[in-house]
Amino acid sequence: MDLGRSMPGNRRACAARRRLRTRRLAPLALIIVGGLLVGASVAVVAVQRALSHPGDAPLPQTLAGLTLEQASYGAEAVAEVTRLHAQSFPLTSGAMGMYGHDGEATLWVAGTVAEFVAAEMLRAMGESIAQSETPFTPLGEGQRDGRSVHELTGMGQQHFYFQAGKQIIWLAVEDDLAELAIQEALEVYR
Question: What CA–CA distance (Å, rounded) separates 154 from 177?
């Protein structure tokens, strides 16, 4: 039997040491919590700024042998996406490009704050197309280059949309250029 541990004075000393350790850890815990709050505040401000001032998303200069004839970037492109969908999305960047002299292909690129947001937007787009009256007829979803690509037809063109990280890509293209255009788009937007 350890008599030193059972003595009342030793118990009081152990309790005092525990209280002292707790008092030493409290400031460290407050510093950590404060740092996390400052980091979260900076992130919220950055996201709000990106949403109110969308940046430019990249567009390739050529697509399926067609040159980029007309383009809009940033806030102008995001406004176009919003107009086409008749609703607002949390977009941080955007671009819209028309390829070929007769508009044989159009590419929309919409950037979001995070990959999970892009995934949710992609899911919502598919659901909206399936449940409402749109000019598009879904042809299915397939794997191309290891990614899910949704394919539709409508308005005299083939349409594809897919996620590339934080971005949603929508390609509208003439039937005879569709395969080449989607392969190139998948290479550009990884």
Answer: 15
pLDDT given for residue 119 in this prediction: 94
H-state helical runs in the chain: 3-6, 8-52, 74-85, 115-131, 178-188
What is the average pLDDT across 52-56? 82
Q: What is the mean pLDDT of residues 41-59?
A: 68
- Look at residues 130, 131, 125 and name the one whose alpha carbon lies nearest to residue 112: 125
Read off the pLDDT of each residue in 60-67 and give the average, rounded to a whole number.
Answer: 98
Pick the CATH number of 55-188 from 3.40.1000, 1.10.8, 2.30.30, 3.90.79: 3.40.1000
Contact predicate 110/91, CB 8 Å: yes
Burial 51-67 (b: 16+ CB within 10 A, else e): beebebbebeeebbebe
CA atoms within 13 A on the CB side of 112: 19
Q: What is the C-alpha separation between 182 and 160, in angstroms, rounded?
A: 7
51 — pLDDT class (breaks 50, 70, 90)? low
Question: Is there a contact between 113 and 45 (Cβ–Cβ < 8 Å)?
Answer: no
